[in-house]
Write a structure and sequence with these properties.
heterodimer, A: 270 residues, alpha+beta, 5-stranded antiparallel sheet, B: 44 residues, mainly alpha
Chain lengths: 270, 44
């Protein structure tokens, strides 16, 4: 049963990754965020995706840092902004595939960047790789969730980089992928951005946590308890005008902690 | 390694803010994405 669930999540993550990487290879200066999001959605429609935790996001240049004022949900929606040569970009999508949720994000730089930016960007990727490797050691069933989040923040700050993931709604480093499919998984798509399965699943998770003591659905500072189960984990960091993140699925159980996709943007091995 | 009872639950006030903010953000997002779709239709 449990192995089937993990396989379902891994398959969904594989579908999301393939769609993002296929489109990422076609991203060119001059593309708008909306155009690229439409291409990602089209790729996933070809894979028969009809339901979403969130529809595709694409952020260009300074928008990869979430330095906007106002609400994340509205500012994060794809815009008509065009990608310039040398700018950082991030693609992020969370489809529901055969009832199982995925959440994958990819970061890169548009072709033709200067040497200085290239070096800064390599710093971001190197720190993402460090954090990804270290999380396997940090996120054990014996560690507190609060400590895991603190260690990620310390590592990013220790590399003289900015912590960006605390700017997400609920300031999350990660969110559970347990408990699917559920009553909300087949909810129809409403507009763009976060969708009902995401909102209702995590609202229900919070209510059940307080009423019944079920595990807390988020990895975030001040969160109670210890990590256990499957999480979409999304460390996000920045330097200067550049921002970068990965989003991968981490499995924490009694005997092991492992990524379903161990490399940075690498293959999903399940 | 046992946790104190107080740490077994997330602070309720924090979570009320998260849920209410999430619902409000979702409603604003729906309005925002519909407006952008209308703007795109007007432009084309």
């Amino acid at each position: 049963m449990r192995a089937d669930y993990v396989r379902g999540i891994a398959n969904a993550q594989r579908v999301a990754r393939e769609a993002i990487l296929t489109v990422a290879a076609t991203v060119r200066p001059g593309d708008t965020e909306r155009e690229v999001c439409a291409r990602i959605a089209r790729e996933l429609e070809l894979a028969h995706v009809e339901h979403w935790l969130h529809t595709p996001y694409a952020w260009w240049g300074e928008r990869t840092r979430f330095d906007w004022s106002g609400r994340w949900e509205t500012n994060a929606l794809p815009t008509e902004r065009r990608l310039e040569p040398g700018e950082a970009f991030i693609l992020d999508v969370a489809p529901i595939v055969d009832g199982f949720p995925a959440d994958f994000a990819y970061s890169d730089v548009a072709g033709g960047h200067g040497v200085e930016d290239a070096n800064a960007y390599q710093e971001l990727l190197a720190e993402l790789e460090r954090v990804k490797a270290a999380l396997v050691e940090w996120a054990t069933p014996r560690a507190s969730t609060d400590d895991v989040c603190a260690r990620v923040e310390q590592s990013i700050k220790g590399a003289a980089l900015d912590v960006i993931h605390t700017r997400y709604p609920a300031n999350v480093l990660g969110h559970t992928l347990e408990g699917f499919p559920n009553f909300s998984s087949s909810a129809p798509r409403i507009g763009t951005g976060f969708q009902l399965p995401l909102l209702l699943t995590y609202a229900k998770g919070i209510v059940l946590h307080h009423l019944g003591g079920t595990p807390y659905p988020f990895l975030r500072a001040r969160a109670p308890g210890r990590p256990l189960g499957l999480y979409a984990v999304e460390p996000h960091l920045g330097k200067g005008a550049l921002g970068a993140k990965f989003e991968s699925v981490l499995l924490v159980d009694g005997s092991e902690t492992r990524w379903l996709d161990p490399g940075l943007f690498g293959e999903v091995v399940g | 390694m046992s946790e104190s009872p107080r740490r077994r639950r997330s602070p309720l006030a924090d979570d009320l803010v998260i849920v209410c903010s999430g619902v409000w953000g979702f409603l604003l997002q729906c309005l925002g994405s519909w407006k952008k779709r209308d703007d795109a239709r007007d432009d084309s």
